[in-house]
Design goal:
By secondary structure, this protein is an alpha+beta fold. The protein has 17 helices and 23 strands. Mean pLDDT is about 90; it is low at about 1-20.
Amino acid sequence: MKKRNFWGFGLIFAVSIIVLLALKGDDRNFEISKQLDIYATLFREVNLFYVDETDPGDMVTESIHGMLKSLDPYTVYYPESEMEDVKLMTTGEYAGIGSIISQKGDYVIIREPYKNSPADKAGLLPGDIILAIDGNSVKGKSTADVSELLKGQPGKEISIRIQREGVEKPVEKKAIREKIQLPSVPYYNLANDRTGYIYLNGFTDKAATEVRKAIIDLKNRGAENLILDLRGNSGGLLDQAVEICNFFLPMDSKVVDTKGKLEQWDKEYKASKNPIVPDMPLVVLIDRSSASASEIVSGALQDYDRAVLIGERSFGKGLVQTVRDIAYNTKVKITTAKYYIPSGRCIQAVDYSHRNPDGSVGKVPDSLMTEFKTAAGRKVYDGGGITPDIKIEPDSYARIVQELVIKDLFFDFVNRYALKHPEIAPIGSFKITDDVYDQFKKFLKTKNFSYETDSEKALEKLVSTSKSEKYYDSISGEVEKLRAQFIHSTERDLEVFKEEISGLLAEQFIQRYYFSEGVIEYNLKTDKEVLKALEILSDQAGYAQLLRP
């Protein structure tokens, strides 16, 4: 009798749970329908009765952006007009002239034409001011607006009117749009006789193929060690990260788990093939901009004690996005899961689900981070990005150097110099001579370059505050003594910080004459992280010790 009552109670309990879940589901469905009805009614009323004409498309797009902004920065709506952006994000490919552009005053300028691109073939140069595209003025337009006008059907000619420094009248340039493929590996080479270096700047659908090709080529050229540079790499496709990890990890090694609200997003990703370099000593470089797929690669390799990580703590993005098709050829990129690397840790640094009262979002404090262990037993932590095995602080620059960068004076000087000097020394032997540096100083005088230090700003604030509080008369003597000590001389600072200034000026020269890949090659000889990696890889015992608890 008791047994029958037990099963009867169990049946009633199970039915109750099912009913409660159904009711809960019905409640949620009702709430969704209710809110959609409110939105549709509001939208109709505003469009019918608002005093001025409204644009329904703009209103819906803005409301969608506002809604998604409350979630996280990675959940994004793409209207039909932005499908090229989606393609660029996933494939690194678009149709256009192939150039980096930037805003300068009322106009957009050519920042850097890609090597052998339509922009390069058409003779567009860094610093060229874009006045009109196909006869339509672009004064006052944003970089996004101009970028949209420069893109278009491959094979179609585009007319670009520019103003170039040193040329009195505007110049008309003709370019033929092409499919532009941005490489995931813009540069790789031997850093020394035994060590290969690969710079991976994104995880598009061709990233693994390009990395594989680079590894094999470097091995054939004698590389016994490898440096994989993920600095500045903000991520991309998860499957590419898994495949790249597989180059170094054994078959069936778990690379990452994803876990979401729906069971369909709970997946385990494993290495599916035999590695191509299972034992090659490896250093991975990361920084504060290394995010998402970069953190999967660096974190998984760290969890298996397969690589030494050097640099700064990474960004901390442990969220997975899925691009989904919605109505009228639009798309939405939705955060559907969190990812967990082999040790079990999620490195997401920002908790978007719990916002502060003012709407801001806080990072996970160090005190709440959980300890995990690598395969060899080394301690690693969740909640704040990937912490490198060897930390290297980024360079800090003098205020004069910061001001020269902010005011874009390195760029302007090099462009003016290049108009009269079509060539410079090869990358390996180029340096800023005293003559070039003197020319740069003279150029700054023509620009009336000046700046105020933080110390001077703080002193002026003290003066202002003391005057308003009527203390200034009693401290004026001391204030003037401080002012005399704080006052800087631009001429003096140009000499004191000559080495720092020359370094960044040289980079700008290399970029102007040898493009971005030239800058990577040029910096290899002085890059602190690369030099540390070479030092570690040259000491087999030291390398092995770093991968032990």
